[in-house]
Write a structure and sequence with these properties.
Elements lengths: L2 E10 L3 H12 L4 E4 L20 E3 L2 E2 L3 H7 L7 H4 L11 H5 L5 H19 L5 E4 L11 E4 L2 H15 L3 E3 L3 E7 L5 E8 L3 E12 L8 H8 L7 E2 L10 H8 L4 E2 L5 E7 L16 E3 L16 H11 L6 E6 L19 E3 L2 H8 L3 H14 L35 E13 L2 E2 L6 E3 L5 E7 L16 H19 L8
Parallel strand pairs: 1-2, 1-10, 2-7, 10-20, 11-17
Antiparallel strand pairs: 3-4, 5-6, 8-9, 9-10, 12-18, 13-17, 14-15, 15-17, 16-17, 19-20
Helix pairs in contact: 1-6, 1-12, 2-5, 5-12, 10-11
Length: about 500
């Protein structure tokens, strides 16, 4: 027998986007239900374990490059004739423009306009923010803010507000399909609870906020491709992100959005069971594969994307492992330990051969690789760990573009690194009000979405925008969903 529930708004997902949508809908007087695959103590998706850095100078001001960075990742090689159509009023956009895989300017404007307002909304619930920098050696000049207590603090504040507003929560309950009426409007969600019991949640509107597909080996293989099995979800919460929300929307005709073939990642210590055991010092040494060979430019740049680049390269290596090797000259960088989140010490040895033996990789090949690298390093005058210093190797393949100093001062150290899946870029497309669009650019009545399952990033990730985007558009989508119950038109 199918258990049935009825509400004004059903929210699928308990992370930053889902809880922001729930609270926003509750504030509009809607009866809200939240369904979440994880047990209560592990709910919250990736948000629960993240520091939740946000790309703002302070609580009242976006970073100076905010709009520029978001616009830079809004598309990939799109037809300029179609892009030009965005210069017309939205109501005049042809269907091919409304549905094409480009993050439209109205969405970007809504993000920029509402981000600071969302920060103040979160502050009204007791969240406190502080100014900081990303936990890395480079990019010192990039200001950020973060909530005191990280993403967990955001979730707890929103959860308390939602519960006080009467929202119901169904944990260990997985959405499986959308329910539509005869006219195509979404009027609920089919789900399964413990012991595979069927549950139907009927509603005037549904907000999908169930994250990406980092935890789905099937979707990772289908979209990310060979070597995706080597990518570990960055934190326990990411294992629950299996892409059902994206799949359900696509099954009823939603337009895809974002870069399905790419993802945001940081290298983590393969040995560690700690959440987000990041090791971000690889650029100051070399990274070799299990055969002791270099395979990527470790020092390609001082931007956040350098983490992605090394992970994408490690993914394709045998067994998906790269060994970051460096020497005692790392001590020349006073704050280098701030860029290591592993709870385990590096592998240490007095010689390169001994180090290779402890790593279980060919000693002779590692010695040759390091010697060849050392011979290609320029004079170290001008070494600056905080910026791309231009100390590039000469005649080395692949080259190392920056921070090329010989690895010659013992003892020697290494971390075994694997890529961690933080955010998949592929998802579905919405408009600036969180309404899901179909493959012809038409709104699917009753269906909204927010957070990582809305695909907006192409090729790379602008640092510190994901949690902020989830909160901003979760709030917008929740408000839009609440309007549906009164048959109110969502402003365009």
């Amino acid at each position: 027998m199918v258990s049935k529930h009825s509400h004004d708004v059903v929210v699928v997902g308990h992370g930053i986007a889902g809880l922001s949508a729930a609270v926003s809908a509750v504030e509009q007087g809607a009866r809200v239900c939240v369904i979440e695959r994880a047990p209560e103590e592990e709910s919250g998706g990736c948000t629960r374990n993240t520091e939740a850095y946000m790309r703002l100078k302070n609580e009242n001001e976006l970073s100076s490059d905010f709009e520029e960075e978001m616009a830079a990742v809004a598309s990939a090689n799109s037809d300029p004739h179609l892009i030009a159509e965005f210069g017309r009023p939205e109501g005049e956009w042809p269907s091919v423009v409304r549905s094409m895989n480009v993050t439209d300017p109205n969405y970007l404007e809504a993000f920029a306009t509402n981000a600071v307002l969302t920060i103040h909304w979160l502050k009204s619930m007791g969240v406190r923010f502080f100014e900081t920098n990303l936990p890395q050696i480079t990019l010192r000049s990039q200001p950020m803010i973060a909530p005191s207590g990280g993403g967990h603090a955001l979730l707890m504040a929103l959860l308390e507000k939602a519960q006080k507003g009467g929202a119901e929560f169904h944990y260990e309950t997985t959405a499986t399909a959308l329910i539509q009426d005869e006219e195509g409007a979404v009027v609920g969600v089919k789900a399964v609870s413990r012991n595979n019991r069927r549950v139907d949640f009927h509603a005037k509107a549904v907000v999908l906020a169930s994250g990406g597909f980092e935890g789905s080996t099937e979707m990772m293989a289908r979209y990310i491709g060979p070597g995706s099995i080597n990518i570990r979800p960055v934190a326990r919460g990411a294992h629950y992100n299996r892409g059902e929300g994206i799949r359900m929307a696509l099954e009823i005709g939603a337009a895809p959005g974002g870069d399905y073939g790419s993802y945001h990642s940081t290298p983590v210590d393969q040995r560690s069971s700690r959440q987000e055991a990041k090791v971000l010092i690889f650029a100051y040494g070399v990274v070799v594969n299990k055969y002791g060979q270099r395979f990527a430019d470790e020092g390609q740049g001082a931007d956040y994307t350098n983490f992605d680049r090394i992970c994408w390269a490690i993914q394709k290596q045998p067994e998906g492992v790269g060994y970051a090797i460096y020497d005692s000259s790392i001590e020349d960088i006073p704050n280098y330990k701030n860029a290591i989140y592993s709870d385990l010490p590096p592998v240490q040895a007095n010689t390169i051969a001994e180090l290779a033996g402890k790593l279980g990789i060919p000693a002779r090949q590692v010695e040759e690789t390091v010697a060849t690298y050392n011979a290609s390093c320029p004079p170290t005058t001008g070494f600056d760990p905080a910026v791309a210093d231009g100390l590039s190797t000469k005649g080395l393949t692949p080259p190392k573009s920056n921070w090329s100093r010989p690895i010659a001062k013992g003892p020697f150290y290494a971390y075994p690194l694997i890529p961690s899946g933080i955010i998949t870029f592929g998802g579905i497309k919405t408009n600036s009000e969180g309404q899901v669009l179909n493959a012809d650019g038409e709104k699917i009545p009753g269906l909204l979405a927010a957070g990582a399952m809305v695909g907006v990033y192409h090729r790379r990730y602008p640092a510190a925008t994901s949690v902020l985007r989830g909160a901003t558009f979760g709030r917008i989508a929740g408000k839009s969903a609440a309007r549906v119950r009164h048959n109110e038109a969502v402003p365009q």
